[in-house]
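Good morning C.,

I know you're traveling, so I'll keep this short. The sequence:
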Amino acid sequence: MRNNSDCLAKPIHRKHFCSRWPFYVIVMTLQLAYGSPRTFFFNGVGVVGSLVSADEPQGTVIQTQATPGEETGESAPNIFSMVTPKAKEYNPAVLNALQRRQTKLKAIMAKLDDSRTGLGKEGEQTWQKVEKLAESAFETENPSLASKHAQQAIELLTALETDLTYANFRAEIQGKDSREILSALVTFSISHPEHPRLDELERSLKRLTHDKWLSKASRELKTAAPNDSGFSEGWLPIASAWQLVGNEPEARDAMRQAIAALPRMTNPSRAVESIIDLCQHESFNPALGKQLLEDAEASCTQISHMQIRSNHLANLAGLAAKLGHASHSERLLQLSISPANLKIEFGETERQILNQRARAASWTESPETVFAMCEKMEKLKYPKALINANAYGHAAIAAARRNNRPQFYRAMLRTENALAPVQIRDFPGYLYTLRLAEANILQRRWTSAVTVANNIPDPYLRASVLFRVMKGAPQKVRGNNLPELFERFAEQRWSAPACASYVEHRIRSGDSLLSLVQWSMSLPMASQRAAAFAGIARSVGTATGVSDSGDKEPVVVPVDIVDMASLMNKAEETAFQIQEPLKSASVWIQIARTWNLLGKNQRYQQAITNYDEQIFDAWSDIWRRRPAVKRSYNGSYVYASTGHRADEKLTIQRIITYHRHLATMQTDLGDSSGAMETCLNLANAAGFLNSKATFDEQNFLYIKALLNRLYGDTNVGPEAILLVKYRSYGYNRSLMAAWAKDLPGLQGAVVDLVKNSQRRGNTARERAQAARGFGELAILNAERGNLADYRDARRSAQSRIDQGHGGSEMKNVLATADALAGEFALAEANLVRGTVAWFGDANRPRKQLAISLAAKGRWRDAAEQASKVSNSQALYRAEAWTSVAEARLTDGSESKPQILDWANSVHPQVDRVAVFCGLALAAARR
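The tokens, ready to paste straight into the viewer:
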């Protein structure tokens, strides 16, 4: 039987459930929306919570929590008893940032707490602000606000630390001497490279007067040790600086200090060199010369190396003659050539004596006197090329000291001629190039001297020459490793004077005085540091910001097709954009030619300067790629690897080609002095590369040919390049006549070539020489418009080629003559593959074909030929496109905008420069 009570209870429970179901629905909804009801209620948000709180009484409500198993009310669960507080969650990145800033803030405050006494009134107020911010950063519960306050405190402390560091530095240097102040200043600038007060220190240094810097220099040098290489030499820049401002007493005092330092020097060779430099200084008192010469003679007896001792005595003999002590000069010379001081080998006695006499005579005698000694040496048996080159170098030095340019050119060419067959990149050949460097320095040919120096493998000799160049022209020695040069080779001669000139130049160029003081203080020798301060003194009160080089990119202006100046400016603007040095050099030759034809000599000279800069950059690339040198068994220096020589050879060959082309152009334009300068550069590059006797070396023969043309203007004849007679003498003579445009001479030489080709036993090369001679004769006749003689010579050459007495490549010579004579179809038919020695390949006649076609107004055909010239022949392409552009504008069939659009579209840049040069020439004639 069913229990009635159970039956009665069920309706009651249903009744309770039905009365409370809305409440359960709400709880389940909150569970789904917020994760738990307690999150909803304790966050104080939600519509239901707001409504409930609005209906409840506003008095104090005391809630109790039921014990487990106990229900309140109608046994329903109490949701408020289920809710527990939950902490607010923050982004972990914010908390990490706060922690880092608090740590940094604490460290900075601890660091500065001990030095707060140095703070001023404003600094103390700033510190109080920092303390308030720090308190908020460590105690505020909101991490975002705390992090913000910590960052503000850090920024204030950073600024405060900067001021405090500077104030402490100023306090530390109070009462110290100048050297300690400079040392502290350098230390401060190194340890605080970004300090905002460095500019203030820079200004304070600039306020130091000329006298202050020279006083610092003197005190620095007085601390030098006697083994300092510049122990005496270091006083010379100081004397020069005093003399610059007209303070002769101080200059003489510096000279007295230099003389007083001589007996204490530990290196006798450097002591002698210092005396030689002292006696040549502007502030030197000649009355002291005799005593100094005697001191130098005594120092020579302490030099163990015989050759160095003999050289010093010979130079002292020349110096004595310069100072007016003739008898003393003769005695020193006799000592120099005595068996005790001169190492004599078999067959060299008279040659060595003549060489030392030439060394002494170069100080005072005329170059002709030294030349007479050199000619005696040439006639001696057992010729020694290096000793002869040394003697000719002394002749060049004698000419440079007298500023006798014709004799200088002659002597330099003779020196290069003697060195040509010697491998001067190896020992002992490179020792004798020092005469070239010295002569170039005395003649103020700075770039040439640097080129000679950088081709010497011995790093110590190279550094000495570079220091001597920097002494007179610091802007000419370029490179990122110059500070290292002073540090590594501090003991070399002229190191101290070079420091003075280098620092002065860098200040005038706009470098920071503070950085230069920092570098000066780091120099290893006291004499270098003193000289650097003297250089700073020489720059006091002068303008800064001067550029190292004079070449400036022209101002970009709109191009006017009828304005030659704007067209040339556009050409130069494009030339500056060419990055490869040798390609850039090729267009500067064309720009120089155009300016000359336009009658603008100043712009022409500037273009030549720009060409020289590009050639120097090409040399610089060679020097950067060279491997390190190593010491050989005999004490000389050799390169660790010879693998670089193949790449070098290609670059130097291009440099030689450009020099040869420029020298020819300058000769054609009547610039005789410029042509002689280029010939010297050509001789030096050719001698360094080939190591061949000049009688069989194209470039020296070419120079000899140019000298024939230049003799009337320069008084330097072809005998400057000695040419001995040998088997190919007649052939080379014919080529020199062709290069010199000597028609009668070429005609006579060709007759000899024909006779020689008929001799029995001749080689194939000798039988082909007559064909080449007739080809060159055809070219000269075509250039002069002698068409009948051109045809005769051409037929003779063609006949020999057809008989096999000359390869098919010889037709390129005839093609050049055909183009000059206006036989365009014949010229194009004779363009063949192959290269003719000392002439070239088909690119040369193709270039001439383009020029001749353009001269006839056929610029479209000329453009087709110009485009076929190889891109590797930048010189030929430039000449060809210049002629094309000139003819196209002269034609007048196109509008100005059309021609300008065409000019701007020409590519590559080498061609575009040439096009604007041609347009400028055409515009000048309109």
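Safe travels,
E.
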